[in-house]
Structures are given as structure tokens and as C-alpha cells.
Amino acid sequence: xxxxxxxxxxxxxxxxxxxxxxxxxxxxxxxxxxxxxxxxxxxxxxxxxxxxxxxxxxxxxxxxxxxxxxxxxxxxxxxxxxxxxxxxxxxxxxxxxxxxxxxxxxxxxxxxxxxxxxxxxxxxxxxxxxxxxxxxxxxxxxxxxxxxxxxxxxxxxxxxxxxxxxxxxxxxxxxxxxxxxxxxxxxxxxxxxxxxxxxxxxxxxxxxxxxxxxxxxxxxxxxxxxxxxxxxxxxxxxxxxxxxxxxxxxxxxxxxxxxxxxxxxxxxxxxxxxxxxxxxxxxxxxxxxxxxxxxxxxxxxxxxxxxxxxxxxxxxxxxxxxxxxxxxxxxxxxxxxxxxxxxxxxxxxxxxxxxxxxxxxxxxxxxxxxxxxxxxxxxxxxxxxxxxxxxxxxxxxxxxxxxxxxxxxxxxxxxxxxxxxxxxxxxxxxxxxxxxxxxxxxxxxxxxxxxxxxxxxxxxxxxxxxxxxxxxxxxxxxxxxxxxxxxxxxxxxxxxxxxxxxxxxxxxxxxxxxxxxxxxxxxxxxxxxxxxxxxxxxxxxxxxxxxxxxxxxxxxxxxxxxxxxxxxxxxxxxxxxxxxxxxxxxxxxxxxxxxxxxxxxxxxxxxxxxxxxxxxxxxxxxxxxxxxxxxxxxxxxxxxxxxxxxxxxxxxxxxxxxxxxxxxxxxxxxxxxxxxxxxxxxxxxxxxxxxxxxxxxxxxxxxxxxxxxxxxxxxxxxxxxxxxxxxxxxxxxxxxxxxxxxxxxxxxxxxxxxxxxxxxxxxxxxxxxxxxxxxxxxxxxxxxxxxxxxxxxxxxxxxxxxxxxxxxxxxxxxxxxxxxxxxxxxxxxxxxxxxxxxxxxxxxxxxxxxxxxxxxxxxxxxxxxxxxxxxxxxxxxxxxxxxxxxxxxxxxxxxxxxxxxxxxxxxxxxxxxxxxxxxxxxxxxxxxxxxxxxxxxxxxxxxxxxxxxxxxxxxxxxxxxxxxxxxxxxxxxxxxxxxxxxxxxxxxxxxxxxxxxxxxxxxxxxxxxxxxxxxxxxxxxxxxxxxxxxxxxxxxxxxxxxxxxxxxxxxxxxxxxxxxxxxxxxxxxxxxxxxxxxxxxxxxxxxxxxxxxxxxxxxxxxxxxxxxxxxxxxxxxxxxxxxxxxxxxxxxxxxxxxxxxxxxxxxxxxxxxxxxxxxxxxxxxxxxxxxxxxxxxxxxxxxxxxxxxxxxxxxxxxxxxxxxxxxxxxxxxxxxxxxxxxxxxxxxxxxxxxxxxxxxxxxxxxxxxxxxxxxxxxxxxxxxxxxxxxxxxxxxxxxxxxxxxxxxxxxxxxxxxxxxxxxxxxxxxxxxxxxxxxxxxxxxxxxxxxxxxxxxxxxxxxxxxxxxxxxxxxxxxxxxxxxxxxxxxxxxxxxxxxxxxxxxxxxxxxxxxxxxxxxxxxxxxxxxxxxxxxxxxxxxxxxxxxxxxxxxxxxxxxxxxxxxxxxxxxxxxxxxxxxxxxxxxxxxxxxxxxxxxxxxxxxxxxxxxxxxxxxxxxxxxxxxxxxxxxxxxxxxxxxxxxxxxxxxxxxxxxxxxxxxxxxxxxxxxxxxxxxxxxxxxxxxxxxxxxxxxxxxxxxxxxxxxxxxxxxxxxxxxxxxxxxxxxxxxxxxxxxxxxxxxxxxxxxxxxxxxxxxxxxxxxxxxxxxxxxxxxxxxxxxxxxxxxxxxxxxxxxxxxxxxxxxxxxxxxxxxxxxxxxxxxxxxxxxxxxxxxxxxxxxxxxxxxxxxxxxxxxxxxxxxxxxxxxxxxxxxxxxxxxxxxxxxxxxxxxxxxxxxxxxxxxxxxxxxxxxxxxxxxxxxxxxxxxxxxxxxxxxxxxxxxxxxxxxxxxxxxxxxxxxxxxxxxxxxxxxxxxxxxxxxxxxxxxxxxxxxxxxxxxxxxxxxxxxxxxxxxxxxxxxxxxxxxxxxxxxxxxxxxxxxxxxxxxxxxxxxxxxxxxxxxxxxxxxxxxxxxxxxxxxxxxxxxxxxxxxxxxxxxxxxxxxxxxxxxxxxxxxxxxxxxxxxxxxxxxxxxxx
Length: 2016
Known about the structure:
Layout: E1 10-15, E2 18-28, E3 31-36, E4 41-45, E5 54-56, H1 59-63, H2 76-88, E6 93-96, E7 99-103, H3 115-123, H4 133-146, E8 151-156, H5 163-180, H6 187-203, E9 204-205, E10 213-214, E11 217-224, E12 230-238, H7 256-264, H8 267-273, H9 282-285, H10 297-310, H11 315-332, E13 336-338, E14 342-344, H12 347-357, H13 361-369, E15 370-375, E16 378-383, H14 386-416, E17 424-429, H15 441-472, H16 485-492, H17 497-505, H18 512-523, E18 529-530, E19 538-543, E20 546-551, H19 555-560, H20 565-572, H21 577-582, H22 591-596, H23 604-620, E21 623-630, H24 643-652, H25 655-664, E22 668-671, H26 672-679, H27 692-703, E23 710-712, E24 716-719, H28 721-836, H29 841-865, H30 868-880, H31 893-923, H32 926-953, H33 956-969, H34 973-993, H35 999-1003, H36 1007-1010, H37 1028-1038, H38 1082-1088, H39 1099-1118, E25 1154-1162, E26 1169-1176, E27 1179-1183, E28 1191-1198, H40 1204-1208, E29 1210-1218, E30 1221-1225, E31 1233-1238, E32 1244-1248, E33 1254-1258, E34 1263-1267, H41 1271-1285, H42 1289-1296, E35 1307-1310, E36 1316-1319, E37 1328-1333, E38 1336-1341, ...
């Protein structure tokens, strides 16, 4: 002890459990003084010190190390001292193996991150340079090519530890490396670097512990090319803290962007954006912290603008972004006051906000202060309280900011989007662990994310590494670590914190208190859950970083993330395209849609959980690198090192355990093959060993003989980083030598090649020059020769010319002489003829007769002289006339051409005959055609039988022998044809893979028809239009000669035989192949997969194949129900009906990579069961026994006993095939053997055609008859038995190696569906572990710990690890698919896999199973939930060409699958058609008119067409649509019908009704509105467009506008373009009218389709007329258009009646019979008229009963109106109407006086001759009748009590009926008497009024009315719903209050002032609730909407009056 306790010694002092580095300051007097490196001093007596408290510090710890894995002292103090020592030396980076630890310096360190550092670390490897973030980035970058997979960097640490800066440094280094790999820098690197200030400004804020804290998590993916440059990138964000926008804790700030905007905006921007100092904004001044000295807000604003410009945002886009930011700030300054609910008190701020958002200020005020809902088709608004209004305001601000943040990030991703074919590097920068004084919902999610990352860190650093050591057999002592799995279970498990939070969020009446109560009751006993003793509104969680208490207030509201639909709809109706774009893709989810949907809206926590699991899945596919960031102090002061804070971070992050495992472990793990492939260059001189392991040992012994740095496992090599660095350095040296040598050889070769090229060029030049000289010489000589020849030829020609001239002259002379001689002969002949005329007439007649006979003789003689020899000579002369160089055959080409023409003529005649035949057949009737068809079928059947008989009698043996002998003599053309056909088959296979929504599976050829399997399509595939002769030729080429039936050793040729051939059964009938139109392809699949052992099947087995194939349809037609299992655990999940194949079972089963016996317990089982478990193809299968058999299963066997009954009975037996023995037992336990068959000694195994699914095994002694349960099972059994029967012992032994047939599995589980796998620590269940999947648990127990760890390692795979055909799947499992195979719908059990691209259907769960079909998922796919007839849950997924109807037994499973598919659909980008692309192109080039005209001319989609459309112009959702409760066709078909309607309307004279029907269709189906607009755009383009289409366009523009802003913009452009035509044309007028209508309809939506009157007016360019009724019978006729509102009509009537100055409020009323409703001022009058027309057409009411009335709405001034004014007359008429309707409570005497005054007003003085008006127009007769009925009912009740009870029942009934009729007549008589009395009394009072003028009577009438205190209130008939008041009530809504009256009484029961009313609304239909501070009043009425609207009007008037008063007072104060 005394040796090292000397002054100045460096020691470790253990104080409070921590070894602190100390220096001994003094040792004297038995006292030792220690001074720690952290500034603390400890004094101890020397005798109290021991080795356990004080120990010597090693030299490494004194000097510090770069890699803490090399520390000799392993404790927390050594790690802490190393970090502190390096921190004081300004060395902030330290290694722990491959993990980098970074301590935040809290200051910019110069010279560490410059270009020189990038250059230095990009060239050096790890270990050669000091630790640095660039070294880790360089290692990650080089690992892309070293490890051949994606890389990821996980940066973790507390808030303020420097994670964001580390991310930026890594991005800077990778960008520099990318720029070096290519000559020019790409836009991706610049965009990523320049966008960093933008993301920080929008996503970072000042918190209590960090001035630049990231309030969102980002996941950056950089995709690299094989050259090393960045191709593209993507940034994904997680959980933006939206709540920070509206509130911050003390000392914190809002997001940086707000402060930078206010600090850096220019003067013009301040005026345009209405900006003020930050102190004036509520969202910025509430925390008390506005400025931050560490941030330059003004400079940051310039960086943000530069970053936005880098994203290629235009100036208008940047201005819109700043405008939305200003709107967010202005939203916080809106204040409210109470006046019957909340009302906006800051109208100035409201107007500014409305201008920023481009919305109407009144509508904005309404959505902020009122909540709207639909009740019975009416929109009712309920006022909100001030708290609710503030929540609405804050939700608007948060929604604006979050959508803006998403938009900025979307622009960034669009900028850096590109190719991602190579590997990628991912960087995760997520929020750090947080523990504030007040922790809320955001901190809970942040800490949950950090828990998941810590689990990922533990899994890769501790769990997987140690399991790898154990698996490879290395000697290893496990390192314990802090596992946070139980804490995650508390959060994520079935009833965990997240589940309870989401459950409470879906309850409308749930509160934060109920949530806290549930959390306490459920998890109070959990060791990681904390229930505070004092606080009543908190709960705590013991995280890996410490205990955190969360404030539960606000949890539910933030988790629900409520954003009302009315606010969303208002923002979508904004005039700003930018605001509309922000909220365009957010769907509206009202109460009804959420109630109808099965899964509802996803909560925030559930979305975050799903995205977090997706992130973990992505990370699990990458090779991780870890960066641990350490925060040195909480104050972010440079140079301060709080060792206690750092020690806390080191402990909870498991840094000591990390150092220990990195020191002892071997982080570099490579397989033998990979190790050899990488380092084989190091042993080039040694001999190559066959054993890879020996080669690795040889290499290790050469470079490191000791085994301290490496180990050899069973399949891998393990080594440490130091040895890897040595090997890498040596490898680089060897590679450099090799590269140098290669370069030398290559450079030498290049030089030699350059020399040869130069030499060759010289030779070419010499040759060319010499050739040029020779050419010139030759040309000179040739020119001389030409001159000489020219002269000589000229002489010859001239000589020849002279000779020819002389010859011609001689010929002319001779010709002249011949002509002269002929003239002489002619003259002589003429002279002789003249002398002959003198002969006698008889002699002349005789001479003439002889002359007539002489021609015939001459002809006959000439014919006789032409002999055959002369003819042949003539022909030969013609032949010889051909040139000698022409072949002889050419002479007959004319003849052949004539023959071809003749053939063509015959073909044309045949075609003509065929057409005539078809026309004749079409002209026949239905009976004649049916008779003709039967005749043809009979002829075809007879011909087929004749052909079969002919084929049967032929001797194919001799024919085949002849064919083979001929083929042997021919060249190898058959092989060539096979290769050619195989190429076509492969091409067809590739085409089939590129299917669209599964059509490839449905359209693929049926192998049962083509006779070919998938594996052997070499000579059998041909197109469907080939002839039968060609088919026979192919068949003869494929088919071998048949063998004998019992020849078992004969085999088919390797090319494979057909699966079907036309053979005959025993009865002589033909074996028909399966139906071509069969829906299920399983039969074809079993045939296709029979190629692996087809060469071992005899000919008789081929016959059996055809028989089984034909019987397969019977099984599928009968499969119509789902089979459920009673045992929830031991149910077979294998697809029994789809796994059976025609090939051997061994051809598709691969060897399992692990299997053993396990004890299982799960489901409803209460006992352990021992099962043989196999993990194969990512499927966990368990069996009752080890699968040693080739095949086993249930079959039915026909009895073979001695008795007749036993031989006929069929018994179910368990058959097992082992080796060549077929054993059968009584049960599947295999304990009672009943018999055995030796298949090698069997004569034959064939499928029996007489039995369904029958198999016969012919033994020497007897035949065994077997029957399977299905066609697939029979086919499977037959294939296995046939192969064993014809196989050798060696082949059977190879079959025995195959195991784990999924058909025999008791249960199965997809590994990808396993949520978690964890070991159990229960002492009574050693070596057990638990699998959690789909909210179920499966407990397993192994025989040893090593086996348990191995199972856990294999099963602990994330969902993203598994891939299906190269794609990551999201879900997969066995589902039931509905199939309409016949009359009834049937169910098929199939294996479905959901990927990011499609929903795929497979026959089985095996990896090589063929894909049956695929439904491509796009944004147009839809999902509907239906209830199956069987009581199950059905989910229908609709695609482009097909649909999947999936049936589930559990609603939760249906919701889970539906939600997963819907998420995939929602993630897909919107589908854009060619029409939309053209419209976008026109929008971009709208300023270039010439280019726009070219676009219109070149694209037929934008031109008028007379032909129907084939597809819609826009992308419409798939699936059926419902109209008026009936399911119709799809939207596609409706769109095509709509276009056909447009074509049909072109020639219609009166198209009004047709146009109305077209508009009604588009109105009911909202997606068709834009389609109709696009069709009209097409049909109104060009000069050929008819005028009717423009008329329809005008009608459409008057009814609705497109929802898409791009289409709306193009529509306006189109109308403007057409409006530029000459103004006098009809098209120009219609275009101008349509443009104006579209402008007016954009700001207001119509309520229904226009009426026919309105449409007629539109077509005539006229206004329509309507009548407005007034009280007293007045009618006013006014003209309106489609957009005239009720408010405009009221203003027009007030001006016409000169009542503009009236203080009362008038309105239009819709009156239907006795019901009336006040119209809103914004309601279009045309909509009301359209409703009237529709009700008339439906027969609901008569046209005269529906009217529009003009009368008083709000009585604001009832006493100061002048009696002679028109307004007073309206008040008088309306008061009288209330009296006669019984709504004036007064005694009968007063009512009689009022009636008399009314008569005096109407008729003047009393006169007996005057005709009385109807009494109902003077007096409330209904009141008289009700009083009379009350009296009679009272008398009846009294008489009923006096009746005797001894009457018979029948007699009593007859007497009562008679009494009732008598009482009715008596009542009517009494009523007539009362009316007479009433008339007399009124007449008497009328007579007293003699001399009273009309004006005086009206004035006296009103004076009496005004005496009632309730005058001026609107009375509504209501009923009390809570029993507080009588049942029948009046609710009087007045100017100042709301009164409750008993119906008919004058005094109110209660009066409620608007000041006392907090809110009012309709909690339920027909229920009005008025809330005050004390209670809630409930009334039942059908006029809820009218009452609420009237109360809202009075309240708004009160608010306006108060606001104007406050403004006037403030103005006076300013003036004073």
C-alpha cells in the first residue's frame, strides 16, 4: 500500500461507487489527501485505505487511449476519465471498437472539419488516424463495396448532445466523396447541403436544455451509384412537434423560422405580410423568451431564402410560404368573447388572416366559432365555447404549419429524387431522450422512440453478437446488459400504454382522467410503471435512461389530432392555389364516415408506432454504424465537463458493457467464402487448399500466430479490428503491387498498340500517296486514249454515214421503179375487168356461185396443211426466241401467274360464299339456329368417333419405327426446332411474369390442354390458332412409342409426354380432358409441376394422369365452405387443397435449416405438447411426430375381409409411406398397424377412372382400392406411389432425405408475422421462450439453453427481413377468397402476400409456389367492407381488371388486412392520365399561343370527336358505385355512358330533360364531375364542335366547378380562349356566359341540380321569373338567374318597397304547406325552385303549396315604426298570422276584439249585407276546437268509470263503436254551436267599431298585440325532453333572450339571456340543447336548424353592436 501512496502518484479512488481519477496531493501524519481531476478533494486516514478503495492507475489510463476497448481497467471511472482527458485536450472523438463516442464541445472547433480533414480521412483507413466523425463516414462509405449491402448510421444521445451537427458533418463528407467520384457536382449534393438551414429553421427550436433542438426526427437515405457518386436521396420525417406552434414552456422558443422571418423581412415584405414585432404575437410572447444570443436570426433568414431557391422554388412559391407563416402568427392573435357562445372580437386580425389565406372572413369567423353538422340533410351550426373556439384556432395554426412543413420536405424529396438501383447509406437523426420539469405527450413519444433505438442497439451489440458466438461454438462468457424489452412491452403490448391510449381516444366521452384511471388499474403492479404518490394527474415510466413523469392532461386531444372538416373544407375552397395544394390530399372524415368505417382514423401515437416499426424494418436490412453523442453539461458552455451528468449518460446507454464486449468480442465476422474471397491475395504463393477452414488457419498463422485477435467457428471467421486493420493494410499493399504490375502491362500493351497503330497509319499514308500518283498517271493516259479513240471513231462513223446514205438512195430508186410496175399491172387488170363485163348474165351468175364456194375450200386446205410437226416447230421457235442466258423455267412464268390469279379468284369466291352463309344463318330464327347447331354437333361427334376408331385401329408401332428410322437419316433439325420452341416458351414465360393485376395467371395456357408442364415447355407450346395437322405433327414428335401395360422399367423420353392423350376406357368411351373454362387452375398446376419425374412413368400411368385431371373439377365445385378447427392451437394452416401436385412431393420441399423437438403451449391448451418443429422457408411448422415418412395422410380403403359386408365397406385409415412400404393404421398416432404393402413388388399403381379420387394398387395376391379426400390429395398420393413403384433403392434413399411436408403439419406460423421473441425467466420453465404474433402468444420450451438461444436467433427476424420475389412484404397469411364458380359463391383458401406494390395470391406458402394471380395496387384501387351471408367479415379489394373478395372470421383480422391494404393504396402517387399531362403542358405554355395551338392540333384527346370513348379521360377509382341505394356499374362505365349521352344530345331539339339527367348523374357521382368537364373540354374544341356542347358547358358551369385546381385553371383558359372569337358568334357568347357563371359558382356550392326552368333560361340567355308572396295576398314578380341569392332578392324588395332604412331584418321564407323555413342569405333562389320542381315531380306536394314568402325575420324595433309606413303593414299582417295560427296567448274576449278589428280593417263599418270572410282568417279556430276536444275527452273519461264490467266483450265493442260515432256527430254539432256563438260575439264587437278608419283599426290592433311581453319573439313548438317543464312548450327566440312558455300561456316559465347561454346545438337529431353554467336544457323539435340559425343571427347582431361600441369608445379616448 505504501509503495504507491506517494505524493504525486496517480490512483483510482472509489467514492460513492465510482472510481475517480485522483492525484495524491500529500501524504503526511497518517493522512492522505486526494485531489480528483474534477476538482474535488478527499481526505482519508492512511489506515482506513485498502486495495478495494485505492488502486494504481495504469499508464494507458494516464495518457489516454483512442480506443477504449484497449483499456486495461474496465470500470465506469476509466471510461469517464478517458473522455474527460480527451475533452480537455479538445479531442472530442473516441472509439469503442467500431462505435464512435462524440462529446459535444459546445463551440465551433476550427481546423477540424475543413477540406484538409476531408482529404486526410478520405485517404486513410480506420486505425491509421485519430478518431473522427469523418473516419466513421469514410468507413461507412467504403463498406458499400466491402460488405455488399446497405449501410446505416445511427446517431443517438440526449437533447443537446450534438446529433444534428454530427448528421451535417457526415452529409458534408459523403457529398465531398461523391463530388470526387465524378468531374462535376450534381444537384443532389447541393440540394442536400443547402436544405439543411431550411430544415433546421422549420424543424428546430430552443428548449430548456438546447438552443437548437430538433423537434422532429429525420431519416436520410442517400442512394449511391457503383462509381460512388450520389444519385438520389430521400428524407423521411417522424412526429413533428406541432403543439410547439401554439404553446411553449417558460424559457423556450417557437420554431426558428418565425423569428428569422420577423428579423430578416424587408419593409415591403412586412407591409405585404402584415408583420409586427415578435412581442405582439401570442404564439411568440407567451414563454417570455424571444431572442437567443447564440442564433443570428437575420442571417439565418438569408440562408433559408437561399435554401428555398436551391430547391428551385419560384419567387411566387417563396412568397406563398412566407404568407402561410404570417397566417400562422396572425391566427394566434384572434381573440374571442362570450355572447351566446364564442364570437371573434378582433375583426382586424381576422380580416388580415382571411387575406393571407385567401378565404372569406365571415366564413372563417363561422368555422372558428361554430361547429357544423348535417342533420336530416340540413347543415346545422352549433356555437362553441371560448375554450373550444381557441382549440379550433390552435388546430388551424398547427394544421397550417404541419402541412407547410410537409410541403417543404416534399419539394426537397422531389428535388433529390432519382435512381436507386445501387446501394444506399441511411442516416438517422432523431430526437434525443428528454426529461423536463413538465413532460407531455410529445416527450412520451420521443422517449418511446429512444427506447426502440436502444433496443436496436442492444440487439446488435449484445444479443445477436453473443448468440453468434454460441452458435459458432466459440468459448464465450456472456456479458450481461440492461435489457429494456420489458419497458417496451409496457408501452407496446396488447393492453399497454399505447393500446389504452388509442382505445380511450376512440371514446367520445373519454377524458384524460379516465385514461389515467385505466393506466393505474392496468399497470400498477408493473415494475416499470410508476404511480406518483402526490400528483393526481401524472404517471411515470422507468425508461432505460431514468424515470420520467408525464403530465396526462392533453394526451387524448393531442392523440386524436382533431381537425374539423368544416375548417378543412374552408381551406380547400381558398382562392390561393398554394393553400389549396397544402390541404388537397387530406380526406374529409366526418362522423358518419368514421362510424361506417371499420378501422376509423388512425391516431397520432398509432401512426408514430407504425412508422417506427417501418423504420426498424428498414434498419434491420442495413449494416449499422453507431455514433453515441454525449452532452458535457446542461448549460451548453464550452470547456465545462459535468462528470456526474456524463456518467449518468454512460450508464444508461450501457457504455461499460459495450466496452467490455468490444474488448472481449470479435466484431468482424465473415464466412469462410467471403474471407477467402477478400484476402486470398495474401496467400498467392501458397498452394490452394480444398478446405476453406484450413486456408483461413494458414492465413491467420502467417499474420498472427496467437489466437488473441481471431477465432475460427463452424462456418465463420471472427477477428478484431486491429487484426482486420493489419490484413486490410497488407491487402492494400498486395493489391497495389498487383495494380502496379497490371498497370505496367497495360501501359506497355497500350504503347505497343499505339506504335502499331502509328506504323499502320504510316503505311496507309504511303499507300494512299502512291495510289494518288498512280491515279494521276492513269488519268493522264486514259485522257489521251479517249482523245485518240474519239478521233478514230469519228472517222469510222462519218464513213459509215456516207455508205448508209448511198444505200438509202438506192432503196428509194428501187422503190420508185416497183411502184411504177404496180401501176402498170393495175391498169392492165382494170382493162381486162371492163372487157369481162360484156359476158352473159347466166355465165356471170355461175361465176359468182363458184366464187362463193372457193373460200371454204381455201380454209379447209389451209387447215389441212398445218401439221402437228409444223405447230411444234412454231412453239420451239417461240422458245428459242428467248435469250440464251434466261433459264427454261422462266418461259412458263406467265402460266404460273395465271394459275395464281385463278387460285386467288377461287378464294375470293369461297370468301363470298362464306359471307353469304353467315348472313343466311343470321337471318334464321332462334329455333332454326338451335336446330342447325344440334345438327352440327351431331356431325362433329360422329366425325370424332370415326377419327378415334381410325386412330385405334392404326398400328403406331410400325409408324413410330419408320419415323425414327427417317429421323435418324435426317440432320439434327428436331433439336433445332426444340431449341427454337424453348426460346419462345421462355419468352412467353417472361411475358407472363409482367402481369397486370394477376391476368398472367388467368391467361396462361392450361397445361392439361397443351400437354406440357412448366418445367418442360420445349416442344409443346404453340399458339391457339395453329391447325390440327400441325398439332398432330408436334404430338408425333413428342410422343414415344407406347409400352406394355405392366412394364414398369420403361420410361418416357426426357422431353416429357403430354399430360392428356385421346385414349379409351374399358367401355370404349373417350376420356375427355378437363374443361377449358374451369375457373380454378389447380388441376392445371398439378399437371404443370409433374416434370421432375416424368421420365420414370410408364404409359399406363399417363392414362391415369388424364383421368385424375378430368376428375379435379368435381372437388372444386363442391368446395363451398370454410373448415374451422375446434382446437385453436393445433389447427393445420397448410393449404390442403392447393399443395397437391402431379410431381413428386420432394421436388418442391427444401431441407429445413433447423429442426428439433419443442414443447408447445398456446391458445386454449392448458398442457404442454411435444411437437417436432421445423423452420423452413420462413415458416415455422410443427408436427405430431418427426417427419421420417415420404408421405402420410388419411385415405379411405375398401375392406378386404372374408365377409361380403366387410369387403364392401370403406374405412378411413392413416397411411404412411416409408421407404418402399405403405403402412396403414387405425389412427394418426400410429399405434395400431393394420397392414403393409411392398410397392416394389406391386404389379401396377394407377388411378381408377370409375371412382372419384380413386387409386388402385395391384398386388400379386389382390388389388387394394383407395380413395382420397380431394383431387389434389389423390394426385399427390398417386405421384408419390408411382415414383416409389418405379424407382431404384438409391432414388428412394434420396427421397428419404426430404422432410417436413406442410400438408401434414399440425400448425404453421409465418416468421414475418412474429412481433417479438423473448426468453422466459420463470424457474419452473427452464429453457422456454415466448412468441407473440397477432395479439396471441405461443410458449415454447427447448431441451437446452443453447438450443433455445438458437431458436430465438432464427425467429428474431423483423418483418422487413423477409422478401417475396425480391420485394419486402408487409403482411401475408392464409385467407379465404370468394369465387363465383357456379350458382352459389364458393370459398377458396389461398396464401396471400401483401407487398408495397401488389396483393399476390399463391397456391401454397412455400417459397417456390407459383403465383396464381396478382392485383396491382394503385391509388385508384378501393376497399369496401361487407358482411358475408355466412356471418363472417368480407373485405373487397377492387383493381383495374379484377377484384378480390376476402372473407375473415374475425373482425379484427379483417380490419388489420383492410388497414394494411389501404395504407399501401394511400402511399401510391396519384395516377395521371394522358389528358392530365396535356392539360399541364398547356398550363406551362399558356403564354405561347402558337405552341398551345400545336398541342390542340396534334392531340386528338383535345379535339372534337364523333366516336365513342374507349377509356375515360381522367383516372377514376375502381370498383362499383351506388346510386340511390342501388349498385350500378363502375365509374368507368358511367363515364363512357356520359360521353355517349353528349353525342346523342347533338341533334336533339329540346335537350333540357336530357341535360338535367346528365347533370344529376355527375351530381350524385362526384368523381364524374371533373370527367364531364374534361369531356366537354374535348367536345367544345375546334371549329367542328356543335353548339349543343357549348350549351351543356354553360349548364355545367352554372351548377358546379371542378374540384381540381389544375382542371379549373385550364377550364378558365379554355373559356377565355373561346371568348376571343368574334363577339357576335354564339360560341363567344356562350363562352363568356360560362366564364362568368364559373366565376360565381366557384365561391359557392349549389345544393342541387338546376331545374328545367333554369336550364331553359340558360339555353335562351334569359333570366327566369318567379313570384314572391307577402302576407295579405300580395305577390311580387321578380327575375333571377342561377346565382341570385336570397339576400340579393331581399335587398331588391327592400329597395322596391322603400324600406332600406328599416332596423328590422327581413328574409325570404320557404313555405311548404304549414311548414316554413327561413332561407339563409347566401342560399341560391334557383336551388329552392329546383327543390320545388323535384318535390312536384316526386308527387310529394302540389306546386301551389310550395311558395317563397317575404316577411320579417328578426324584430329589432317594434315600437318606433311609423303606422303609415309599409313596414308597419308587414308587422300588422305578420302579427295577425301569428294570432290565427294560435301563437298569441290571450283570452277569448281579446281574440274576439282582434277579430272584430280585423273585419273593420278589411270591410269597414258593420253592414248586414257584407259577406263575412272565413272565420279561420279572423280567429284561431284550432284553439276553439282543441278546447272542445279537451272537454269531451274529460266527459268520456268520467263516463268510462261509471260503466259496468258485466257486459260481454262483443256487445261492449259494438256499443262503443256506435257510441263513438254518436259522440263525433255530437262534437261536430257542439262545434257548430260554438262557431255561431263566436260569430255573434265578433259581430257585436264589430258593430261597436263603427266609424273607425282602416288605419285606426290597424293601429289599435297592433297596440293590443304589443301588450304581450313576448311580442317580437319567434315562437317554435317544442317538447320538454328532461321533465323540467311541461311537455308542450313554446320556445320564444327574441332579441335579448330566449323564453320558455307553456303552450298557450302568456307568462314565461323561464327566460334565458344570451349572456347566460354558453352554447347551444343539437347533440342528437331533433334535439336542441341550450347550455348554461348551471344546467343543460333539452327540447325535442323538428325545427332545430331554424331555432339555431335565428339565435345565431341575434347573437351576431349583439356582437356587432358591442364591437362598434368598443371601437367608438377607443376612438373617443384617442381623440381626447
